[in-house]
Amino acid sequence: MSIKELPFSKSQLEEISSRFPTPFHIYDEKAIRENARELNKAFAWNEGFKEYFAVKATPNPFLMKILKSEDFGTDCSSLPELLLSEKVGIVGTEIMFSSNDTPAYEFQKARQLNAVINLDDISHIQFLEKNGGIPEIISVRYNPGKQREGSFIMGSHLSLEEVARRYGGGANWHANWYKDEQPPHPVEITRPFYLQTTEVSQAQWKRIMGNNPSRFEDCGDDCPVEKVSWNDAQKFIEELNQMEGINKYRLPTEAEWEYACRAKTETAYSFGDEVDKLGEYARYGDNSGGKTKPVGKKKPNAWGLYDMHGNVWEWVQDRYGDYPTGPIPDPKGPDKGEYRV
Questions:
Q1: CA distance 92 to 311
Q2: Which CATH number fits the domain 11-140, given the four candidates 3.20.20.10, 1.10.10.10, 3.40.50.720, 3.30.1300.30?
Q3: Span 35-64, pLDDT tens digits
């Protein structure tokens, strides 16, 4: 390993220390500029690349001015760092504001300076929108941690306006759906579970319960049972467990259902974002004639589950309530609530 050489001699250092009280820091401007230029050169292939200097590492206005002259921006994580950048003439997209547990006034200052805002978590988007607004350029850190089965982002990252643009109907028409899908948040399913590959059919219901409550009873035994309440579903499960002498059957949680529905995808549907392909995978208003259809006749998702995007609504175990704002393993929904999902 090579030995680093100081840019001055021992006698020069002694002279400097006699003039300035300790402690003090000595910086090699020539080396700083050379390294900055080498870094920019190394990434010159990437058009638009910009390096942001972490102010908290060395909050020194002189160094910040040097790096500004070498086309560096500043990476700020607090109000003092934002103010320091502003004082040395660094504003706008020359600032990357990256912070966690950020108070509203810091977001507001970053917005005032037109900084690029880099959120630590997608669940902070709504807080930023309420306390400063969404800037023209925004980025979101996503650290999934150890890659393992069961981790996914639950909920939707789409804005209300984007939902209306993609699927029509106007923003007001989608308002309730949007509210129920926000905020997107990381979830980890830690316990394995089985899920029937189709909805419960009318034949299954009749075998267990001895009746058929379905409105579309003439659809046949292979069609999904409907007109069933959450309590009805619990009674069906109770009867099924008793019949087999076990206690294994239950409704999935909402998180388990969404995890199974997505099948490790992050798109609008398990098959992608293409709305025109929906008819290949689901029965819905445009291709059902307003009636249920036999289960398992459309394409399944990647995990072999059918009708996850249509045919009938499906009950889960959870009570209805707000999503958490942060990560949580095996969420079960609110402890209290009048309605079920």
A1: 50
A2: 3.20.20.10
A3: 999 999 999 888 888 999 999 988 999 999
